[in-house]
UniProtKB/TrEMBL annotation:
<feature type="region of interest" description="Disordered">
    <location>
        <begin position="101"/>
        <end position="141"/>
    </location>
</feature>
<protein>
    <submittedName>
        <fullName>Uncharacterized protein</fullName>
    </submittedName>
</protein>
<dbReference type="InterPro" id="IPR001680">
    <property type="entry name" value="WD40_rpt"/>
</dbReference>
<feature type="compositionally biased region" description="Polar residues">
    <location>
        <begin position="101"/>
        <end position="113"/>
    </location>
</feature>
<dbReference type="InterPro" id="IPR015943">
    <property type="entry name" value="WD40/YVTN_repeat-like_dom_sf"/>
</dbReference>
<dbReference type="InterPro" id="IPR019775">
    <property type="entry name" value="WD40_repeat_CS"/>
</dbReference>
<dbReference type="InterPro" id="IPR036322">
    <property type="entry name" value="WD40_repeat_dom_sf"/>
</dbReference>
<dbReference type="Pfam" id="PF00400">
    <property type="entry name" value="WD40"/>
</dbReference>
Length: 364
């Protein structure tokens, strides 16, 4: 059974649910964060074992054990960050050894239905190279086995690193100086709206400006040498990182028709990227003045290596909040303000056939 963790579609009520993606039914649900706080984001990874973390708007991050009967009734740990903002937490991403898979993709901008996206047998010039290596990654584990959670700090420009095991803060970036902070240059760096932590990083850190508008979402690929970012404007940035040289380079800048990207994700095999947009919010405003019917659009899919569009997934009737890929690269999940979660079977990797396996055995 493939299990994907999602927060409640109505996050304002603080409910956290576990879904069985095979039966499309709720396995377990709990009230993770009460009152008007709600659940803002969730995280799970192999480094955490059978644990999922929820982030509430109440300044708390809670860990929940996965049991036979579902989620534990009480949190197994609580991290009191005392931070109140709109920045989603991040677990540390660690690159692992590469392995090969095969995927056949063709460019398309037509709408599709949930659960399956048509794939043509004869991929065109926009196809990905099947021989390209892929990367598996683990989230929530560092090189020494310590689980680390990253979150925006109490000061708007800060990022805090927390030890999940001990529920203690271990670092604050940039480091605070003992002098008066009023004249400190980092005071002018603004508000942290998105964060993604990863290992390794051979440089001491560097600053790059992707857009004049706020960056609301960022995702780092499995190699930790690049990523994708989106914000309040109509541009999606794909970038590359060179940690040894401490350099940043913009690989692709994609302009979209309607501004606003709330979420980004890169598939674990580093071949596909997806974004969740504000399309419906824009269309609602336009339809108010022009009396046009709103068209459900919001999930865009791209070839991560080349930057070309592969598909536009039309299903949700309200603003899309987030997208995520399953670890086996077979499913894409999207959630929306319309209180629905959609699952898409999006260009699944090819599984070795019996003939291929027999051929490999003969060669050996």
């Amino acid at each position: 059974m493939l299990g994907l963790w999602f927060r409640s579609t109505s996050a304002a009520d603080g409910e956290l649910r576990v879904w069985d993606t095979a039966s499309h039914r709720t396995v377990s649900s709990i009230w993770a964060h009460g009152g008007a706080a709600g659940v803002y984001s969730i995280a799970a990874g192999s480094g955490l074992g059978n644990t999922v973390i929820s982030q509430g708007r109440d300044g708390l991050c809670k860990g929940w054990a996965i049991e036979e009967a579902g989620l534990s009734r009480r949190p197994i740990f609580t991290i009191k960050t005392s931070t109140y903002h709109f920045c989603k937490m991040s677990l540390v991403k660690v690159p692992c050894s590469a392995h090969g898979t095969q995927t056949n993709l063709s460019g398309s901008n037509s709408g599709t239905e949930p659960q399956r996206v048509p794939i043509e047998d004869n991929a065109g010039s926009d196809s990905l190279n099947p021989a390209e290596g892929t990367q598996e990654y683990e989230q929530g584990s560092s090189l020494d086995g310590q689980n680390i959670l990253t979150i925006a700090g109490q000061e708007s420009f800060e990022v805090e690193l927390w030890d999940i095991k001990n529920s203690t803060k271990i670092m604050c970036l940039p480091k605070r100086c003992s002098a008066n902070m009023t004249g400190h240059p980092t005071k002018q760096k603004g508000l942290c709206m998105a964060v993604q932590a990863f290992i390794p990083c051979a440089s001491g850190g560097y600053v790059n400006i992707l857009s004049r508008c706020a960056a609301l979402s960022i995702a780092i690929d499995g190699l930790c040498t690049g990523g994708i970012s989106g914000g309040a404007d109509n541009k999606i940035a794909m970038f590359a990182l060179n940690h040894q040289k401490g350099t940043f380079s913009l690989r692709n800048e994609i302009e979209i028709e309607r501004p606003g990207v709330a979420g980004t994700a890169i598939r674990p095999d580093n071949k596909i990227a997806a974004t969740a947009g504000w399309d419906h919010r824009f269309l609602e405003a336009r339809s108010t003045f022009k009396r046009e019917e709103s068209v459900p659009i919001g999930i865009r899919v791209y070839n991560y290596n080349k930057g070309n569009a592969l598909a536009i997934l039309k299903y949700h009737s309200a603003t899309c909040a987030a997208v995520t890929f399953s670890h086996d690269c077979k499913l894409l999940a999207s959630c929306s303000a319309d209180t629905t979660v959609a699952l898409w079977e999006l260009y699944p990797p090819k599984t070795p056939s019996k003939v291929d396996i027999a051929t490999e055995e003969v060669e050996k």
